[in-house]
Design a protein that fits this description.
heterodimer; A: about 400 residues; alpha/beta; Quinone Oxidoreductase, Chain A, domain 1; Rossmann fold; 2 domains; seven-stranded mixed β-sheet; 14 helices; 18 strands; about 30% helix; B: about 160 residues; alpha+beta; three-stranded antiparallel β-sheet
Chain lengths: ~400, ~160
């Protein structure tokens, strides 16, 4: 089959690789119909996520049709149109039973990597390095889906493939940020990042009753898209001082909830950004936590900060003093997709959540390296490049 | 030639550093503590489901008399804490490092058995990694493969 392989830093190619097969009785094989780039893939491309190897198939946000099931699969059958959570969860460990799916105890087949990096093994993720299990990703014609009864969800009739696609990862990630940050009716919420996850977090905050939602980015087309499809206020951080602006807009308090949806390659202005960038270039750090710092400084006292962006290692110049003395609650996670996907599919079916606009560019899988170039460099207003493996 | 000499000196320096670290008193104390430490997992099932009629889960039972085992109820309705450790002495120092590289450190088998027991009891199967690991073998990839093959038996468990 055809698949998009990571070959090295900033090097991708479409290759012919062996078809996946059922390896466990609770597996299924899914024929991938749509699969999309994600901002977190850029960290793989840039070489910031450890334990990648040449030939790894990437991609984790996808939709397709089940073409084969293992003998112990109970909830799915061949022919089902499904969206699959990017996180693999067993559904029966303590974490999965408590809806903390990305902390699954049983889905990472190479637990020692994360164990040594983070002190505990984390759950498996498709196409996201050997730290998360070394699973082959979704930018391929077929993919093996372990624990399919827990990770795949029927797409309701009447919901278009493109609308359902983003309930695999970006929509549940965004929803999780607003939900677990504790957004309540009347809150003012600030969201750093107007990519797909940031837009979904902003929309989730609105649907959860926030009084005002303010999204922050620097790309005019993303800011315009957020205003148009999410319906919230936006700020361009290259044109204003974000912390001062947020203070002014919130009566001097600061936002009740701050959601960071940028990750380890955050851009910014000023000395701190240059400092982070220099350290990253010299290989002295994996992460540039610019948006996280700003969120912590901007947040109101005793407010809540949620880190949705992916980070890999250690950071310095972290405002621990501000966090502690302001009494902030800081929370984070890889997405607990299985917790939110059914609800999100329902919202999409009812027309309350729009996602298809995120797919600014659609192309055959053969053109995926070009798609990633557009996505990485924000060419032609690219927010998400979506690949059709069978086109 | 110059590069080879520099490379040799660097490797020699690293080797000396590792030897010195391994022979330091602090490392010896930590190694001794680690050798006698219980390796533990918490299984999201009641003790009677983890060890029905006192029978150990199959992956641990396979290790037979080479290990000792403890089972206790976890606090807060979190299931069962299952622990094991090798009875045989655990190699230390340079021998220990070589044993770990060769997958011959008895703790590796115990960690693997504990993880497999947990997975088997909670989900009914032990998840297998995707195959084949790669379609493009490279020297760096081979090192990663070697680490990945040991991954079930390593870590902080």
């Amino acid at each position: 089959m055809k698949a998009l392989c990571w070959q090295g830093v900033n090097e991708l190619s479409v290759e012919h690789v062996p078809d996946p097969r059922i390896l466990n009785a609770q597996d299924a094989i899914v024929k991938v119909k749509l699969t999309t780039t994600c901002g977190s893939d850029l960290h793989l491309l840039g070489g910031y996520i450890p334990a990648m190897r040449a030939g790894d198939v990437i991609g984790h946000e996808f939709l397709g049709e089940i073409v084969e099931v293992g003998t112990e699969v109970r909830r799915h059958k061949v022919g089902d149109r499904v969206v699959v959570a990017s996180i693999i969860g067993c559904g029966r460990c303590w974490y999965c039973e408590n809806d903390l799916w990305s902390a699954c105890d049983n889905s990472n087949t190479k637990p020692a990597f994360a164990d040594m990096l983070y002190g505990q093994p984390i759950g498996g993720i498709y196409g996201y390095s050997h730290v998360t299990g070394g699973y082959k990703g979704s930018h391929a014609q077929y993919i093996r889906v372990p624990f399919v009864d827990y990770g795949a969800f029927h797409v309701p009739d009447g919901v278009d493939d493109m609308d359902a696609l983003f309930t695999s990862d970006s929509a549940p990630t965004g929803w999780m940020g607003a939900d677990l940050a504790g957004v309540r009716p009347g809150d003012v919420v600030a969201v750093w990042g107007c990519g797909a996850v940031g837009q979904m977090a902003a929309r989730a905050a609105m649907l959860l009753g926030a009084e005002r939602v303010i999204s922050i980015d620097r790309y005019p087309e993303r800011l315009a898209m957020t205003e148009r499809y999410v319906g919230c206020e936006t700020l361009d951080y290259t044109r204003t001082d974000i912390i001062e602006e947020l203070k002014e807009r919130t009566g001097g308090r600061g936002p009740d909830v701050c959601i960071e949806a940028v990750g380890l390659e955050a851009e910014g202005a000023g000395r701190r950004h240059l400092y982070d960038k220099a350290k990253q270039r010299l290989g002295m750090t994996l992460d540039r936590p610019i948006a996280v710092r700003e969120a912590i400084y901007a947040c109101r006292k005793a407010g809540s900060v949620f880190i949705l962006g992916v980070f890999a290692g250690l950071v310095d110049k972290f405002p621990l003093g501000a966090m502690m003395n302001k009494g902030l609650t800081v929370r984070s996670a890889q997405q607990h997709g299985q917790r939110y996907i059914p609800k999100l599919l329902d919202l999409v079916a009812r027309g309350e959540l729009r996602t298809a606009h995120l797919a600014t560019h659609t192309m055959p899988l053969d053109q995926a390296p070009r798609g990633y170039d557009m996505f990485k460099n924000k060419k032609d207003g690219c927010v998400r490049a979506v690949f059709r493996p069978w086109a | 030639m110059k590069r080879a000499v520099l490379g040799g000196l660097t490797l020699g320096g690293i080797g000396l550093g590792v030897m010195r670290w391994l022979s330091s008193r602090r490392t010896k104390v930590r190694t001794r503590q680690a050798a006698s430490r219980w390796l533990m997992v918490t299984i999201n099932r009641r003790p009677e489901e983890v060890v029905p009629d006192g029978r150990l889960p199959e992956p641990l039972a396979r290790l037979g008399d080479a290990i000792e085992v403890q089972v206790r109820e976890a606090p807060g309705d979190r299931g069962t804490e299952l622990g094991a450790r090798p009875i045989t002495p655990v190699p230390a120092g340079v021998t220990g490092v070589l044993a770990r590289l060769g997958d011959e450190d008895p703790r590796q088998a115990v960690r693997r058995a504990l993880r497999e027991s947990k997975c088997l009891i909670e989900t009914g199967e032990v998840l297998r990694p995707d195959e084949p690991p790669t379609t493009r073998p490279t020297p760096a990839g081979r090192i990663l493969d070697l680490a990945a093959q040991r991954a079930g038996g390593e870590g902080r468990l």
